[in-house]
Amino acid sequence: MEKCTFCVHRIIRLRRDIEAGTFPAALAKAVKDGLTTDEKVGKAVDTLMRRLIMKDDEVSEAEPEERWSDFDFRELNYLPSCVRSCTGRALVFGDLDDPESLVSQLAESKRAFRLFEELGTNPKVIYLQEGV
Description:
The protein is mostly helical and 132 residues long.
């Protein structure tokens, strides 16, 4: 499974690094080089990534008939795991081309902005200013 192209944190790639043992090694090097002084960061990041991972293991083990027979195709089922599990509602995901969708309405609001858009980098992440 490739990383979600919408994920700012690149969860799937980090999952592979964690499972391969290369992510903790990179973190240990960062601690050694003085880039971070908190050695507990490794365990915290590992725990966070495992909670946010989009689990494909259970789905791939099911037979196709079993997998889809009672599947509920509501919009919630299409949300990335990070959006579904974000208790602070800090992440919104949807179809920008659908003017009725929440994400489209938020993107068109006065609060919406993209970082360094003026540089022509075509940023895909839209941020919302507080209280505008």
